[in-house]
What does this fold into?
Amino acid sequence: MAKTIYVLNGPNLNLLGLRQPEIYGHATLKDVETLCRETAKPHGYDIEFRQSNREGELVDWIQEAYFKKAAGIVINPAGYTTTSIAVLDAILGTKMTVVEIHISNIHQRDEFRHHSFVSKGAKGVICGFGVAGYAMAVNGLAELIKNAKD
Ligand code: CA2
It folds into this structure.
C-alpha cells in the first residue's frame, strides 16, 4: 500500500502566521505541517510536506509524488491557483488523486481569486475553514483513496 501523502504549498505560504493574520490566522506553516502529520497518522499515512515560491518546483513535486507512487496529494496552489495550467497539466498527466485546499474562502474575496485551474484536476476542494481545512483535506483524501479501493 502507498504510504505517503504529499502536502504541497504554493507561493508566499511560508509567511503564514507572520503576516495578514486577519485573513490567514496565526498558525505558522510548521503548525500546519504538524497538523497534517497528526491527521494522517491514524490513517496509516506519512506526510511529505513542501512549500515553494516557484511554479516549476510544484510541477516537479507532483511528478515526484507520481514516480514515488504516493497515495495522493493535498495542494494549496496559492497564487498559482488562478494562473497555472502547468500545475493542472501535471495533475491531469499523472492522474494523481488530488485535494485542493484554500485557507480563506476564495469565493468571498476578490473576483480574480474565484476561478481555479487546479480545481479541474482535483477530486475535492476545501476552502474557508482556516488552516483546519488542511486536516479536512487529509481526512478527505484518505477517504477518497479508501473508497477507490473498495
Ligand atoms: O486562502 C488560501 O489558502 C489562498 O490559496 C492563499 C493565497 C491566495 O492567493 C489565494 O487566493 C487563496 C495567498 C497565499 C499567501 O499566503 C500568505 C500568508 C500569510 C501572509 C501573506 C501571504
